[in-house]
Specification:
The structure is a homotrimer of 504-residue chains.
Chain A lengths: L1 H39 L7 H4 L18 H13 L3 E15 L30 E12 L5 E12 L13 E10 L12 E8 L4 E3 L4 E4 L2 E13 L2 E15 L6 E14 L2 E9 L24 E11 L9 E11 L18 E14 L2 E13 L7 E14 L4 E15 L9 E14 L11 E11 L25 E11 L1
């Protein structure tokens, strides 16, 4: 027993030591955990507006001196939670790899064809090589008098490099920065539901054909305006001025600036949108172009004015045939307005330039698991950069997706573009006439499938593109421009890659 | 006994097993703690603290085992919402258009006059052409021992272009990035309320005359310091060192750097602020200036040392006359301290340079709807960049606002500046002597009017500016500098435009 | 015996109580650790999830048409608070001053020695002169089907300037931008716990030796992959492809790009990590190097392929000797894989290049207040950039800290590096052979001391560094490279300064 006791004694002593050690370790772990917890604690993002007593939107919950009721207190918490007030961050991003069948970098991009130089997009699936991101910060507030304010700032960056450090290539910049006020008590009558804005922005009523990476109309710049003036029962109008820069007469940065102004009247009448724009860029004809862009004499004067109009229909079915959506638009522009999509962004247009463009797309579910989104984009532009030039092109594109499970779908995109371009020497481009075809298959993962605009997506893809060899001649005289025919990208090309696309 | 021993044996074995298990668990917890510490330790966004029951500042909701009452649960949610800890985002922005009566870009800016080249601001309303934004991210934490930490990072960008994509013009950069700790248990006696900081920052006690877009004193750079040392009952002091860069001797980026250091003692004694600064920039005289800046020989040596002091009064009324505020400051600097506003930012000063500056402004409501904010800024600087040079200027400015409704006010700004500048050939500038006058009227929308610093605002404006023609000669010898007289901006000028201004 | 038994009984009872208590504490610590672990990866910005009605995870609080009860409403608020979803912001930053005993800027940096040009880091404490920041934005969502998504974007900037405005020096860029999906219902079998990602990122399983500012392995770029494929019970694997850019053949930006691809298989088998990489960069040998980098003829061909492997052990004690951690890794690479740390980042390696590297570090508490973290990094590289070249170096480093109070610790770092470099004229570098020694003492303030990875810190420091004078010759033929010997930084150098370091 003594032996047993002794052994027990030993084991007890050992146990006591181990327990003491375990306690010490537990104590230390607890302390660290506590410390971790302490420092992890309290971060708020948004919530700033939840907690900031100086936030103009914090409604008082009762008469001074009265304790708010539980109902009031919960309502306030819920109100805070439900409001779109405070800070929000949103974003868009795409990033991926694009390589050819020899596992080396290849060309690509929705504007890779000769027609792309004048806006002829050919479809983006399996055809993008850049990493592009937008970070959007919004701050919303609501005031005691009922007014609301929105402040938005957008950072954007696009690079082609796959490297992680792109300090030398970075184009990170502020693309939007504006304020907008709504529900102003002063605004009555036709302005009752109107809002007023100023700063740099993308116009609220721009819209795009996502699959082509092309806006139908893209109005952006620095300016001010009024949205949603009630003209009649089913008619609202926006009036705005947007400024843009075309460069300098004389020394870069210190000479006279040439600025362009766009006056816009944008009407919504039921499902119709009718946009009218006037453009003015004084002294634009005195601006000197990069000599490399100059065509042989004689050339026309650069435009200093322009006009532009768009009529669009925003359909609530698939062309009246079935459930879905469609949009159709006709655009016409003259002078500075002849860049009919990116309003006011092209200062090299002649005073006689004229363009007409047609844009149509629709979306529908053919079956519960097959989505179909066809689109058409076509333009004829003449006297655009040189008297007598002519740019005709037409793109047909269809994005088809087959939802195979909750997380997976096969996506297909087929594009066909025909073009007849006669640039008359502008930018050292040659006349070309021919067709381009692209087909892409993209196995696609999604957290949850379920629609045309559901993101994020992670894609693998294989793309085959071919075109008439005449198209390779377009930019052969200009080493500074990528187009078909450059770097051995001459036809019958396979591309492969992977890409993520995200917005939230 | 055998039974007892057996039982003891059993209990020992069971204990040993439990201790082993506890040890294993402790080890695992320790490992995880270590891993957590390694990868991220002290962080969380506050958001998290709303849900984190272990947050140290969250009041416990009841004795263990008791279900918290509704009262307790709501109190906890409210408490979480009120916290100032965690992440916050703040911002400042202005963006707009500035054009002349021919609807073309025009000159402008608060420092457009010849005196502006040495800090003579003339008033910003209806006179700004840039899009400028600051995005400020703050992370605050509180620790179990009562310590607090603040981490701040500020991104800023300023461009003149009105275009939406400014990848080529962007100046997006990190202007502040620092950490500051407070309430350290180790700090006692005069340091009891002190905080310690290091990194890159704007000094906390800088202040400005907003209407002139001019700080009264602006100390910024990379360094470290202590704030709020209690020297006496009504006396606190800050001591800091700030470093700045002046460029290189020899090859840009690879030669010897010339760095400047500012030692600052900043005292608050009641309403008085007394700042003392010493500056040192070894080898600054060996630095080579851009030849274009060099005046004719003989010229003085570049300063390698400097001294600076400011005495300011922060008034709690409108000059003792009525409700409101006022601030007044006298600044004197010598050598590197002769740039009296932006401390240490000018490495081209001579060793004999001397400047004295006076800054005064006030704010008051003249009636319930009329606000009035006059200011004065004046300086005499000599031997500044060249022996024998002299810069004398004085600005009077008044911002007046008439609050006409909850959402609308008329703002007026009148500025008058007189100057007598003799640069002795520095930067190819010519001697000028004359006056400048500017008047602006700006119909202004606000979600809620109500004070001098209430933002956001959306303004339209019309500005008339005129000046003595002699002032047009100042920069006529230097094509790289914008001033009066460049690009046909020669006097009697109307400007128009729109602008938003925001901070939150 | 009864007495003995009684005593034993008492001690057993006491032990049992203590073990029970220890178990309870361990349980609590485990629970908190679990919670911390969970929340660590998924911070929520409430704001967004609170207010965003389209958030996929927002549970409905009751049947449609029923008004939710107070209980339900509070539960929902609490539920929102508990979510790990939404937006989080995290960051890393360091900023400070570094000057010499004459109060002027001095050289520094963890890669300042000749060996630094091939990865030989020497320890960072009191040796850094840059302001570097990372801002990381994460958006997490959870879907009804259980899938999760993570979107991450990282902005980073590093500048040497101490000035507040660094618009001209800024290198702000997007270093990461990717999407990752987990818990996909489609994934079963070995993929059950796997996640899929695409975009630009730092590989998840990179790890570093913090005190050296050197990763052990750093894989980053644009690509896609799968994480956590279950190969066997204790064996998971990641497979990925990463792309990187090496530059152009011909005109910058418009010639043929040379791209590099890294195929990686990264295995975790218990505490072991085994990484296998294949690299390919077609046409890399046709790329033209900056002539300044070219060594005399004859030189080897640039590599177009490479292989790389790493075997690492992640220890859960201090080398089995005491509580703590350690990590050890051996890396071998050939051809493009001969840059063994930053995989695929060096396109100038020859086809015969070979490197072998050893990395070891550990952390332990020597006493409750003394921390000790020794490390070793060594490499032999040959035929690296030129046939017959050889780079041998070995670094020993130890970071020691003495926690003196809740807020203060003394930190010490000693580094010794020996090198024998024979670059054979590459980059105009000369052969050198010698040793470098650095010692730093850094009084350090922290809100709360307590571990190797606890930040933020504010440090003052004094550093003494000395080296064999032969090392000064390394870069004496190349004015564009900073190394020992440039700008009078020739040995026996004192540096002083201040720095903050932060992560959260």
């Amino acid at each position: 027993a003594a032996g047993t006791d002794a052994s027990i004694e030993d084991r007890l002593a050992a146990l006591e030591a181990r327990v003491a050690a375990a306690e010490a370790r537990a104590q230390k772990a607890e302390a660290t955990v506590e410390q971790l917890t302490a420092s992890q604690q309290t971060t708020t993002s948004k919530t700033r507006s939840l907690g900031d007593s100086s936030a103009p939107s914090a409604p008082s919950v009762g008469p001074a001196g009265d304790a708010p009721s539980m109902e009031q207190r919960v309502a306030k918490l819920e109100g805070n939670a439900d409001k779109k007030l405070g800070l929000t961050l949103n974003g868009y991003a795409r990033a991926g790899l694009l390589f050819d069948d020899e596992l080396t970098g290849t060309e690509g991009g929705p504007y890779i064809t000769p027609a792309g130089s004048v806006g002829g997009a050919v479809g983006r699936l399996g055809n993008e090589d850049d990493n592009y991101a937008e970070i959007v910060l919004e701050h919303r507030a609501e005031y005691e008098n009922g007014s609301t304010s929105l402040y938005k700032i957008m950072l954007a960056d696009g690079v082609e490099s796959s490297n992680d450090w792109t300090g030398g290539d970075s184009s990170l910049n502020v693309r939007q920065i504006f304020a907008e006020f709504g529900s102003l008590p002063d605004f009555g009558g036709p302005l009752e539901n109107a809002s007023i804005w100023a700063g740099k922005r993308f116009d609220r009523d721009n819209f795009d054909i996502h699959w082509l990476d092309s806006d139908v109309v893209f109005l952006a710049g620095t300016g001010a305006g009024l949205y949603d003036i009630q003209v009649a029962d089913d008619w609202t109008s926006n009036v705005s001025i947007y400024g843009r820069d075309y460069g300098y007469i004389g020394d870069e940065g210190f000479g006279d600036e040439v600025e362009s102004y766009i006056f816009t009247l944008n009407n919504r009448i039921g499902n119709w949108q009718w946009m009218l724009n006037g453009l003015s860029a004084k002294n634009n004809d005195d601006r000197e172009l990069d000599p490399g862009m100059l065509p042989p004499d004689p050339r026309a004067d650069l435009a200093e004015h322009g006009a532009h109009t768009m009529v669009a229909y925003h359909g609530e079915s698939f062309f009246g045939l079935r459930d879905g959506t469609y949009k159709a638009a006709v655009l016409y522009g003259q002078g500075l307005g002849a860049e009919v999509k990116s309003l006011g962004s092209d200062g090299n247009l002649t005073e006689d330039a004229e363009s007409v463009r047609l844009a149509v797309y629709g979306t529908t579910y053919l079956t519960p698991s097959w989505r179909f989104a066809p689109s058409l984009l076509a333009e004829h532009s003449k006297d655009r950069y040189v008297s007598g030039d002519s740019y005709k092109w037409l793109t047909l594109n269809a994005r088809v997706a087959n939802e195979l499970s909750e997380n997976f779908e096969m996506q297909y995109e087929v594009s066909w573009q025909t073009m007849d371009l006669d640039p008359q020497g502008y930018n050292s481009f040659n006349s070309v006439d021919g067709d381009y075809t692209k087909f892409t298959i993209a196995p696609t993962f999604k957290p949850q499938v379920g629609g045309f605009w559901v993101r994020p997506e992670i894609r693998l893809f294989a793309t085959y593109a071919d075109w008439d060899s005449d198209l390779n001649n377009y930019a052969s005289g200009n080493n500074d421009v990528k187009s078909l025919g450059t770097n051995g990208y001459t036809g019958g090309e396979w591309s492969f890659g992977t890409q993520m696309e995200m917005w939230f």
